[in-house]
Amino acid sequence: MQQRAQESRQKILNAGIEEFALHGFHGAKIDAIADQAGINKQRIYAYFKNKDGLFEAALSSSFERLLQYENVLMRLTTDQAHELTERIVRHYMTFHQQYPQFWRLLAWCNLEQIDLESGVSRIDGDVFKHLRIIYKEGQSQGIFLKDVSFETFIYMVTALSFFYFSNMKTMSRSLQLDFEQANVKEQIITEVLRQLEVQVPAI
Predict the structure, then answer these.
(1) What is the spatial distance between Cα 146 and Cα 131, in angstroms, rounded to a whole number?
(2) CA distance linking residue 45 with residue 5, whole number of Å
(3) Which of 7, 41, 190, 201 could make a disulfide contact with 34, Cβ separation 3.0–4.6 Å?
(4) Alpha-carbon distances of 68 from 73, 74, 94, 101, 111, rounded to whole Å
(5) What does DSSP assign to residue 73?
(6) What is the helix (H) or strand (E) element at residue 19, kind and residue range?
(7) pLDDT at 201 over 50
(8) Which of the 8 DSSP states describes residue 71?
């Protein structure tokens, strides 16, 4: 594909990600995407065939961005098991803050019951296998509870980051805390991590 065509395709894709993140698949409008991209909507059909094709590309591109961001987690070693919980929490908190389109797309997909299998199958492979090894080592060292599975552990720590941003407005109002403030986020992270630490009883 020629450079100009690639640039046009990327403009459409970026506009599509924004539109789908704001309105979901069913609420998104091809006309709005074309306007935002500054491209004739016929080009959208030329590159992506239809709305479904553009949405699939938008979802795939967002998961690809997550995969690239997760590469740093692959560098963690078993010697860093004591840091695992905090590293994962802060990693995903930062990702969702920098790229809110991702958690919004996920929320819409779950709300509209759109199949995520193709995307999820790409993110729960090598990274989770690697983190599972570190978690198991942490269990052997007494860092993590032996009766809490890796699946439950990863659910808790990833759910924290997703919930923080997807429910920021409601939790800010109900708890009378401004979740957009860095000090509030740090307080939540620090205190949740403290709750997740293994409490060793005194002998």
Answers:
(1) 16
(2) 13
(3) 41
(4) 10, 11, 14, 16, 26
(5) G
(6) helix 3-27
(7) no
(8) G
Half-sphere exposure of 5 (CA within 13 A, CB side): 6
Task: Render pLDDT for 60-116 as a digit per residue (tens, 0 to 9).
Answer: 899 999 989 999 999 999 999 999 999 999 999 999 999 999 999 999 998 988 876
Nearest-angstrom CA–CA distance, 95 and 127? 15
**Three-class SS state of 149:** coil
Q: What is the CA radius of gyration of the chain?
A: 20
Domains, the chain, with CATH or none: 1-49 (1.10.10.60), 56-196 (1.10.357)
Q: Residues 159-164: contacts with CB within 8 Å, 24+ apart?
A: 160/89, 160/93, 160/192, 161/89, 161/92, 161/93, 161/95, 161/96, 162/92, 162/96, 162/103, 162/106, 164/93, 164/96, 164/188
CA distances to 12, 18, 58 from 99, rounded to whole Å, are 18, 11, 13
Question: How does pLDDT run across 114-145, given as a tens digit for each residue?
Answer: 876 655 555 557 899 999 999 999 999 999 99
The pLDDT tens digits for 30-60 are 999 999 999 999 999 999 999 999 999 999 8
- CA 67/CA 10 separation, integer angstroms: 19
